[in-house]
UniProtKB/TrEMBL annotation:
UniProt keyword NADP present: yes
Domain of life: Bacteria
NAD-dependent epimerase/dehydratase domain span: 3-66
Keywords: NADP
Keyword NADP on entry: yes
Protein name, UniProt field: NAD-dependent epimerase/dehydratase family protein
Organism whose genome encodes this protein: Agromyces protaetiae
Length: 255
């Protein structure tokens, strides 16, 4: 069957495309870089022609509420509408563990993700949603966002991050399976304070930077309550540890 991966050139999308290309299916990586714009609709009809499955792993360039809501509203409605017209039988989307909690905490970006999920659920289309915790690869972004002058001030919360390869595998499994009409959660094997994961990222080289826990810090605009980033008891847990991922990462990109 033909599977179109919208956002197929991104961090997770490129892994999804690579894993799907190891199967006998026809796989199309669709993004602005390949001439497909899910926001404007440019190239969508052509890309989706003959597709059975549409996988949405695209992302907004905007982290603010207005930008995120506008992107996910427009692109999701475009994908659902063009998908229906092309005869797509399964709409698969990647979102975040705790999206509703993060949106309720005031994080504008997460309001966009929440709207994306609502639009899919209410569309009447056959769908599956994958909720992932934060990717290991995203921890440097969390560290950058937490930089306040000379200090890295992070939010006080537990997290259970996962290797991007493992999130991609869950998305692939959803794409090759039947529509669930619901959400599956995936997370990594280890639960620890967010500050520990950031500290261990900095600790790869000789220039260990101190990480401070700031009770007033926000997580991408969201005021977190403890547990907001954590998966529920039914989440599927992957096995690659942060330690092994860090070793692999440091070997391929020496500090
Ligand atoms: N960060 C985390 O830890 C985390 C955790 C759970 C879930 N997620 C979710 O995972 C998803 C993927 O995240 P990611 O980090 O892999 O994103 P990413 O690396 O930023 O990639 C985004 C992809 O979307 C494409 N894109 C952007 N605008 C587009 C448009 N208008 N039309 C078509 N394609 C467009 C980009 O390609 P072009 O620029 O070429 O268009 C790129 O391929 C997001 O929805 C995010 O919410 C993230």
């Amino acid at each position: 069957m033909r599977i179109v991966v919208v956002g197929g050139t991104g961090l997770i999308g490129s892994k999804v495309v690579e894993q799907l290309r190891a199967t006998p299916h026809e796989v199309v990586a669709a993004s602005r870089a390949t001439g497909v714009n899910a926001y404007t609709g440019t190239g969508l009809a052509e890309a989706l022609d003959g597709a059975s499955v549409l996988v949405d792993v695209s992302n907004s360039d905007y982290l603010d509420e207005a930008g995120s809501l506008d992107y996910f509203d427009t692109e999701t409605l475009n994908l659902l509408t063009y998908g229906a017209a092309a005869g797509v039988r399964h709409h698969v989307a990647l979102s975040i563990v705790g999206t509703d909690r993060l949106a309720a905490g005031g994080g504008g970006y997460f309001r966009g993700k929440q709207l994306q999920e609502q639009l899919i659920r209410r569309s009447g289309r056959a769908f599956s949603i994958v909720h992932s915790t934060q990717f290991f690869e995203f921890i440097p972004r969390i560290a950058d966002a937490a930089l306040d002058g000379q200090h890295t001030k992070v939010v006080q919360t537990l997290m259970q991050p996962i290797a991007g390869d493992d999130t991609a595998a869950a998305v692939v499994e959803a794409a090759l399976g039947s529509p669930t009409g619901g959400t599956v959660e995936v997370a990594g094997p280890e639960r620890a304070p967010l500050a520990d994961f950031v500290q261990r990222w900095f600790g790869r080289g000789d220039h260990v930077r101190p990480v401070e826990v700031d009770p007033l810090a926000r997580y991408f605009g969201s005021r977190l309550r403890d547990g907001d980033l954590l998966p529920g008891p039914d989440a599927r847990l992957s096995t690659l540890t942060y330690r092994d991922w860090l070793e692999r990462e440091t070997a391929s990109h020496p500090v």
